[in-house]
Amino acid sequence: MKSLGKQLSLCWRYDAGESALIWQLMFTGTGDLIGQKRYVANRQALLFSIDSLTGQVLNDGYQVMSSVNPVSTGEDWFTGLETTSWDLVYCYAYQQHSPEHQGIWAVDLRNGREVWARRDIIFAANFDHEFLVYQLSVFAGLPERHFMFIDPATGETIRQLGSDSFSINAVRAQFVVEEERQQVILPEFVVDGMAVERLALQKAGVSDKARCECIVQGSLTFAALHEPNASSGLWCSSIKVWLDDHLVYTDSMEEHVDKPCLNNFLIRGSHFYYIKKKQELVCVAIS
């Protein structure tokens, strides 16, 4: 790591293990960082949990299976993270032969246990104290969605909304996108050479063929730079942070790969996180 001027502090690193791919990241209301790591060779997906302040690994390898309820996700490779609440993470499976989600599994990763599971519903929106979900049915050969609210703590139905589009649209108008609800800031692409304040791309010495993702926070600019090698065509990705016009942090995210390492950093609160070589999660303090 190189730095000029103020040095940003490395807080912690988490290594997901040999051949693992860190696939998804979310945060609970208690501040735990929840992630999914995937192993391509044996088609396995596992959950991990980290105390975001200390870097302590709370759970490292939880498989989404029902222990309190005979509701299996099927092959666990086909699972993902849907949303979080105060202390739970909610997972989904896929409908058979379809990219559509199916079911909700509520997991307490700190204690390594499944709290409840329902395969008959599909997640639609998180309103904190209740979830909007729906059930699929077919009428006269056409698919229909029947909406309801459930209790995030128990999975029990609170009230039915049916398929009335007016009332459902009114509910959806109050929806807060997941990254905003979790207080996460994601990068945006710098396209067509647009000017970004304080982004010293020329000083970084990148080529005009490079791709860039950027977040600007006050006097700090965070950028993931993706550059192709002129001869091999392989990509190298790096993370760089500027304080005004001074480079204060840089690290390699990936080298000599077929595709650029996109959408692999974020900011939450006073920390930024990035994924290094697909299997390592790095946390850096920014204040």
Give your account of this protein's structure:
This protein has 287 residues and is mostly beta strands. It has a domain at 17-182. Helices cover 6% and strands 52% of the residues. It contains 3 helices and 21 strands. It has helices at residues 165-172, 178-181, 201-204, and strands at 9-15, 20-27, 32-39, 44-51, 57-62, 79-84, 89-94, 101-108, 113-118, 122-126, 131-139, 142-150, 157-162, 188-190, 211-217, 220-228, 235-243, 246-257, 265-268, 271-276, 280-285. It has a 5-stranded antiparallel beta sheet, with no helix packed on it. Strands 1-21-20-19 form a 4-stranded antiparallel beta sheet, with no helix packed on it. The chain has a 4-stranded antiparallel beta sheet with strand order 2-3-4-5, with no helix packed on it. Strand 7 and strand 8 (101-108) form a beta hairpin. The longest helix has 8 residues, at 165-172. The radius of gyration is 21 Å and the shape is globular. The protein starts with 8 loop residues before the first strand and ends with a strand.
Poorly predicted runs of 5 or more residues:
1-5, 66-71
Query: How far from one another are the termini?
Result: 18 Å
Give the neighbour order of strands across the main sheet.
14-15-16-17-18
Largest sheet: 5 strands, antiparallel
Structural class: mainly beta
Strand fraction equals over 45%
Molecular shape:
globular
Pattern of helices and strands:
EEEEEEEEEEEEEHHEHEEEEEEE
Number of distinct helices: 3
Number of strand elements: 21
Helix content: under 10%
Q: What number is the mean pLDDT?
A: 86
Radius of gyration: 21 Å
